[in-house]
Write a structure and sequence with these properties.
The chain is an all-beta fold and 341 residues long. It folds into two domains: 18-195, AttH-like fold, CATH 2.40.370; 196-341. Helix content is 2%, strand content 61%. Strands 13, 14, 15, 16, 17, 18, 19, 20, 21 and 22 form a ten-stranded antiparallel beta sheet that branches. It has an eight-stranded antiparallel β-barrel with strand order 2-3-4-5-8-9-11-12. Strand 6 (80-81) and strand 7 form a beta hairpin. The longest helix has 7 residues, at 115-121. The radius of gyration is 19 Å and the shape is globular. The mean pLDDT is 95.
Length: 341
């Protein structure tokens, strides 16, 4: 199976005929000095007439500033809605995001498990985000669009998808507080049909240990079938493609949110493995609901944890970095389905 990734893929794709066609960009970052981080996403669902716009900022004192909107759109010409604008400056090398608008400020981020109450019972502040993200060119890119469909009809999550570790500079303001950002993160870009209910569960882990070391680990489980395991390690200008990933998790509380993550990435091509541990510093639970053809509501939980990572083996043992641990689970009988892993 060949995978294509061209500079043109850094821009918008032709809108497909599928009702659930989605084109989205996501990016995260963390500044180790100021202890502020966040992630930002825009997903166009033009055939549904809306976009999904999300801003999530983890403040240094443990609060989270958050906003989610579904602004109306009628085309897939740009990622620009709800006050959030994405600008591709140079493919594979530079991307900018800008946001001006309101955010809700949560002293207790877990309140977002019930978004209606969270938005009603917490204060809003004006916010501004102006960030520039730079990458190290095409050799640092992971993924693209395969020439053979890799997902069954009804189980699609992305026709094309790629990721890249990046550096981040700029500023974030929430209310009267403002921070200058000088950190690292990861971005991704996806296009094609998407339902958040397609995976049974997944674990998506991103980590940066400065500009020359980082990883992405992915475990996607299907309800019927083995799913997939993999990722990559970027180490001093070299991309190591990983074909195996083990993840184990300690969950806490009645809601069973992930708190500690232990993992291994393996590359048969490089004959290497990397072991790591992650401790969640701040977590916000999000949800997506969709009605099936029988009128039943399907519930998906996406827990977003800003995480401190430590490499625990090899030449980088002891290195400390930061990133996100994103846990998606379908919720059945009130419980996330992926607790066994």
């Amino acid at each position: 199976m060949a995978i294509r990734l061209d500079p043109a893929d850094e821009y918008m794709h032709e809108l497909g005929p599928e009702s659930n066609f989605n084109e989205s960009m996501y990016i995260n970052c963390f500044d180790p000095a100021s202890k502020i981080g966040g992630w930002f996403r825009m997903g166009n669902r033009a055939n549904e007439g809306t976009a999904e716009m999300t801003i999530c900022i983890y403040l240094p004192d443990g609060r989270v500033a958050f906003i989610f909107k579904r602004p109306s759109i009628d085309n897939n010409d740009a990622l620009d809605a709800g006050g959030l604008t994405w600008t591709m400056v140079k493919p594979f090398e530079e991307l900018r995001i800008d946001y001006v608008g309101k955010v809700v400020v949560l002293d207790e981020p877990h309140q977002m498990a019930n978004p209606k109450e969270a938005f009603a019972n917490n204060p809003f502040s004006e916010a501004e985000v102006h960030l520039t993200f730079t990458g190290q060119g095409k050799p640092s890119m992971f993924g693209g669009e395969p020439d053979v469909a890799h997902e069954k009809p009804g189980e699609e999550f992305a026709k094309g998808h790629y990721e890249q570790l990046v550096e981040a500079t700029g500023s974030i303001r929430v209310g009267s507080e403002e921070w200058q950002i000088n950190g690292c993160g990861l971005r991704d870009h996806s296009w094609g049909p998407r339902y958040w209910q397609a995976p049974w569960y997944y674990r998506w882990l991103t980590a940066n240990f400065g500009s020359d070391l980082g990883f992405m680990a992915s475990r996607v489980a299907k309800k019927d079938g083995p799913g997939s395991r993999g990722g990559f390690v970027w180490d001093n200008g070299q991309m190591h493609l990983c074909d195996d990933c083990e993840v184990s998790t300690e969950f806490v509380g009645d809601d069973q949110y992930h708190q500690k993550v232990t993992g291994i990435l393996r590359s048969s091509r490089s004959s290497k493995e990397w072991r790591f541990e992650g401790n969640v510093m701040s977590l916000i639970p999000l949800r997506n609901r969709r009605q099936d053809t029988d009128g039943n509501w399907l519930m998906t939980r996406i827990s977003e944890g800003m995480t401190q990572w430590t490499m625990t083996s090899g030449e980088h043992s002891g290195a400390v970095g930061y990133g996100l641990s994103e846990y998606l689970d379908q919720i059945i009988d009130g419980s996330p389905v992926g607790l066994a892993e």
